[in-house]
């Protein structure tokens, strides 16, 4: 839901965790921050599927990273 918004930094940290990356993460502070905020609404989805359960972000990112690692040779590059 809208109350579960995450920042770009939080999303990047979820990917780092999902990939089990052990190196240093560097942010390029010389670049623009980009769009400050764009809240997405799931009101329409909730109207059709009121009992829909979203996958928690860390779990979804881990699933996606695991799939990517398993399918790297066949994934589009």
UniProtKB/TrEMBL annotation:
<protein>
    <recommendedName>
        <fullName>GDP-L-fucose synthase</fullName>
    </recommendedName>
</protein>
<dbReference type="InterPro" id="IPR036291">
    <property type="entry name" value="NAD(P)-bd_dom_sf"/>
</dbReference>
<dbReference type="GO" id="GO:0050577">
    <property type="term" value="F:GDP-L-fucose synthase activity"/>
</dbReference>
């Amino acid at each position: 839901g809208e109350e579960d918004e995450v920042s770009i930094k939080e999303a990047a940290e979820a990917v780092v965790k999902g990939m089990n990356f052990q190196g240093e993460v560097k942010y390029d502070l010389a670049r623009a921050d980009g769009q400050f905020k764009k809240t997405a609404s799931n009101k329409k989805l909730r109207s059709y599927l009121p009992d829909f359960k979203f996958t928690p972000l860390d779990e979804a990112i881990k699933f996606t990273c695991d799939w990517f690692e398993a399918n790297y040779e066949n994934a589009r590059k």
